[in-house]
Specification:
The protein is mainly α. The protein folds into 2 domains: about 60 residues, no CATH class; about 260 residues, no CATH class. Helix content is about 75%, strand content about 0%. It is built from 17 helices and no strands. Helix 8 crosses helix 17, helix 11 crosses helix 12 and helix 15 packs antiparallel against helix 16. The radius of gyration is 23 Å and the shape is globular. Keywords: Membrane, Transmembrane, Transmembrane helix.
Amino acid sequence: MAMGRGTGRGTGATGILVGGGLLITLLVGLLVALDPQRQQTTWNDTYRYVATIERILGHDAAEARSIALHWYCADEARTSGGATHAATCVAGWTRIGGLAPNTARYNAIFDARPGYPLLVAPFAAVLGLNAGLAVVAWLVTIAAGWLCLLLARLAGLGVAGSLGSMVALYCLPTFFWLQQDLTEGVTLACTLVLLVGSVLVLRGRVVAGLVVSTLAYAAGLLIRYSTFSLQAVCLAGCLFVLALLGPEELRTRRTIRLAGYHAGAFVILTVIPMLLGWPGFRESLTDTFSDHFTHAVPGDLYGHWLSLIGRYIASLGRLYGGDPILPLLVVAGLVLLWRGERLLAALVSAAALTGIGSALAHPLASQGSRLYVQVFLLAVFGLGLGVDLAHRSLLPRLAAERVSRVRREDDVN
């Protein structure tokens, strides 16, 4: 399917694309900025990121922990509707040295993710902690929308489909996770940057694409290295499949070389954390099965993990069995993309596989959809392609009706 086919790529189309994107940005930006319930949950993880932010801003470990605890308890009082009293919360957790779990090995997992705190710290320094967190969430949410629009357009969708993808991003669970004070939002945005870089390479802008992709990997290493090492191997695999099964213009050495680039990125993103002594997969499993390093680890760690995966999949079946709209949209998007836009299908499938792999590595139903949020990108771009196809089929019909109307008017005259 040719890029932008049936929609035009002239100044008029670009104007519609930019104008539509700005309108969506305005509506979504106002919704995020003015919604007092943007953050409906107080996340334990955010407490740890806040402590890191305060250390970056110059506070010692004890001061940073105290500031983070006061923030956490104040936010918990807000999100609980007054059920939690901030002063009581602070006093209780202070007595045991900080918010549980409070083991050194657990905190080390978050110390190895400095990317998000480094992003928030300048805003927090200028605007204050709460405003800094809110502004970063706003910026990430808006940036993700434009990245979605850009990826769709570069990969082959027309104006209508690209705008449809942008709207879909804000109508699915992706919108919720983009707004949270967690790494999920910046991870999703960084994933989209990585996919944009890949499509630039395949469209012939090799240097620009490799620079964009490398910067995305560098940021991903600092944000959540395990996710982006998995992302790299998934991209390598999906691009190899594309080189075998894609349209002729993509069965090229360039596609194979790009797959090799991502395979190399996987090796680098695996080796660097090992050299730095950052926690690996086994440490993550130990965290899961030792209740955050507070209990003994079961003997058959990997057997327990596989058993937990089975229960996790069953819980997802129960969750979506009663309300299957999201999985149906994901499956429909997967089928539609591979049938109509295989370049976009391969890239988005790699992101979705990363989400699936992340969820299976931490198969805890309590985490909701946060670990597999990338899977919803199949629905995002599938809906965009659906809009594009509907628009393309509608245009000839509208043109025919217009010609018919003009002829009738000429006959009357």
